[in-house]
């Protein structure tokens, strides 16, 4: 079961990994970031754009939760995507700036999620226009899992372009417990 402390840990991991991916991407020339590498979202920048698009869509939905989550208000000022493959950002610098805003908001939001919020059903409209109603805790798991999945793709593309992202395991952020 998802617990609020796990959500905070996943938010920390998310921000840490996004920083690592952005730092690796920044070491490449612009043409390497936009080169079609045969990935689902074609390029490194395309994959990073998809992460931003999906995160924006999910966080806008999360903002409608009965708890309100005003901590997500900064995300409401970011671009509003209409398609999962939309290229909101044509350069790494503007994507990185908005990614920082988003990751900070995700961190504040994660710290505000209460255990009682997790079993509530969130009704939303999917990107395909379908009305869905799912348990909020399960949607949070999907939110972070989706990011990990596509960051893994971006990490592979960066490695193919000669950039090592370094350690990517969540366990690197889990503190040792004193027995």
Mean pLDDT: 96
Low-confidence stretches: none
Structural class: mainly alpha
The arrangement of helices and strands along the chain is: HHHHHHEEH
General form: globular
**Strand order across the largest sheet:** 1-2
- Which range does the strand content fall in? 5-15%
Distance between the termini: 24 Å
Number of helices: 7
**Major sheet, described briefly?**
2 strands, antiparallel
Report the radius of gyration as a whole number of Å: 16 Å
Task: Name the descriptors.
7 helices, mainly alpha, 6% strand, 179 residues, two-stranded antiparallel ribbon, single chain, 56% helix
List the SSEs and their pairings.
Layout: H1 4-26, H2 30-34, H3 44-62, H4 73-76, H5 92-112, H6 115-118, E1 121-125, E2 131-135, H7 136-160
Antiparallel strand pairs: 1-2
Describe the structure.
It is a single chain. It contains seven helices and two strands; from the N terminus they run ααααααββα. Helix 3 runs parallel beside helix 5. The longest helix has 25 residues. It has a two-stranded antiparallel sheet with strand order 1-2. The radius of gyration is 16 Å and the shape is globular. Strand 1 and strand 2 form a beta hairpin. The protein has 179 residues and is mainly α.
Care to give the gist of this entry?
The protein has seven helices and two strands, in the order H-H-H-H-H-H-E-E-H. With 179 residues, the chain is mainly alpha-helical.
């Amino acid at each position: 079961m998802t617990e609020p402390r796990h959500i905070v840990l996943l938010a920390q991991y998310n921000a840490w990994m996004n920083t690592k991916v952005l730092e690796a991407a920044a070491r490449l020339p612009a043409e390497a970031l936009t080169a079609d590498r045969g990935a689902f979202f074609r390029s490194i920048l395309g994959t990073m754009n998809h992460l931003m698009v999906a995160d924006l869509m999910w966080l806008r939905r999360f903002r409608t939760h009965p708890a309100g989550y005003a901590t997500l208000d900064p995300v409401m000022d970011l671009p509003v995507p209409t398609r999962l493959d939309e290229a909101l950002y044509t350069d790494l610098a503007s994507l990185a700036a908005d990614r920082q805003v988003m990751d900070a908001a995700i961190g504040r939001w994660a710290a505000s999620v209460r255990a009682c919020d997790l079993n509530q059903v969130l009704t939303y409209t999917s990107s395909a226009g379908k009305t869905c109603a799912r348990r909020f805790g399960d949607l949070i798991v999907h939110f972070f899992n989706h990011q990990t999945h596509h960051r893994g793709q971006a990490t592979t593309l960066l490695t193919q372009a000669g950039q090592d992202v370094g350690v990517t395991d969540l366990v690197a952020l889990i503190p040792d417990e004193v027995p």
